[in-house]
């Protein structure tokens, strides 16, 4: 039973990562490495909390969080897509901005509790039928609505990327924007759409932390999870389904130190902290050494596309 | 139809005007945010100025903030010149500090000059190795170095955390998780508030200027950055060039680790970098990968950093405001680069030119 508890907690801890990772996947699929994930999550987390605290309405809070993340992404999109600015530098700047933004606007809310109405709304709900499956039901189907929505998103984003014309175009732009442009795909429009959607998802990931995961607003609620999400994209090899598994694995590592202490297990907690990064490096090396092309990063990842260079 | 066309070259005067314009626009926007926070923006900017230049001590603090940023930016610049996206300066910085601390722990009784020399050497080697690993995989297997170096930052950070909280924890610190302060023979001597790392930095700047602009390897790095095919065609050994550039780039970032613990913080800890490794990437990029501009921009960012810490204490304005102002300035400069590099024309004009 304890183990089921642990896994259920791992799913919860991994959900914020899952939102951000799904977002970053669709951004990277269109060729844009956005290192501003941490910043956009921070913006979503703080705006989500402020909106929730002010309006007391869970849906308003979530919507504002998504908009805040999307606004951050829009700055990034404007600079990298329209103004051809360097993606790495712009992304890092966005992270600096988001961290400062959250620290500044969240300052007066530190120590405040999430309103009752929101906590109640996001309480774990046991689903009928699915929730009765032994083990699986307790782990996956006795969770918050926020977690259930992420399940739907995984499927939706998988369908979007691999089963629709838009997804095909998106992937084509990430692999070869020259060819995509030549075949009449509006490259910039696709880029804007994917990048801004990525921002909204990162915002949702951040707000999951500030509205569901914690009960009292801390000084730094995201505290580096955005970077873990960037790792997770590679670890999942740009695949939404694997991102889900990876998110729960990294989520488990996130809470592992607490459980290790609880049971006095003789394992270094530093190993657990470093494991997401070590595992990611391993995946990165493995895929590049074996030249597995369909599991590698999009060919134009990080490079801007300039039409007139064609 | 509107077209965006690459400009050949911009005049230096235009470059300066547009950048200054971008900074001013950013400051106007920042002023609005500051006013929103309930402070007087004009007073704040005067505060930043006073915090940086108000006294010899404050000016010393500004230079102290500039030194690590400048050397890190120079390091990052070398790799960027080769189109090798080293965003692992943060990790190389930390590993360099680990290397320097290791010398002190193994040979605590060396005389000061030899001690400093060994610390600097090992810091350089540790930083260099931390970048040569991804460089090797990039050259051999084409492994994405942006992602690899990013991961290595966090691996280094966890490593230093483990050292600080466990393996190298100072038993004399009453349970406080800290690494013991360096002994006197491992500290950079300072003259009236300015420590010796400033002198070394001046030397590094000069050496790097010649390395990048006058040396054969500097030329090879630049060619390789422009086009790998050209480099291969004129007979440059690509693997060797990549590894050497990575060694210099990572080594310089590692050296900063030694400067920082030996000249500023006095001990290795997870806080020594203060995110400077990331700021350095931005500085190097905004400087167009040119040494004189790296020096200029490092100074500008040092003013922002020092000004931020001053207004925090003097005006009780949270330091996060400075972070935001810094980011807004960067956004504007990044945007203004577009005006410098491209121009917008209509079809009609283009035909006339043709």
TrEMBL record, chain A:
Membrane topology reported for the UniProt record: Multi-pass membrane protein
Keyword Cell membrane (UniProt): yes
Domain of life: Bacteria
Residue intervals passing through the bilayer: 6-26, 33-53, 59-79, 91-110, 145-162, 192-216, 222-238, 245-261, 267-286
This protein's UniProt keywords: Cell membrane, Membrane, Transmembrane, Transmembrane helix
Keyword Cell membrane: yes
Molecular function terms from GO: transmembrane transporter activity
Subcellular location: Cell membrane
GO cellular component: plasma membrane
Name listed for the protein in its UniProt record: ABC transporter permease
Species whose genome carries this gene: Acetobacterium paludosum
Upper taxonomic lineage: Bacteria, Bacillati, Bacillota, Clostridia, Eubacteriales
TrEMBL record, chain B:
Origin superkingdom: Bacteria
Keyword hit for Metal-binding: no
Keyword Nucleotidyltransferase: no
Segments traversing the membrane: 16-39, 59-80, 92-108, 114-135, 147-167, 187-211, 242-261, 267-286, 293-312, 324-342
Any Gene Ontology CC annotation: plasma membrane
Keywords, ordered alphabetically: Cell membrane, Membrane, Transmembrane, Transmembrane helix
Membrane topology: Multi-pass membrane protein
GO molecular function: transmembrane transporter activity
Protein localization: Cell membrane
Protein name in UniProt: ABC transporter permease
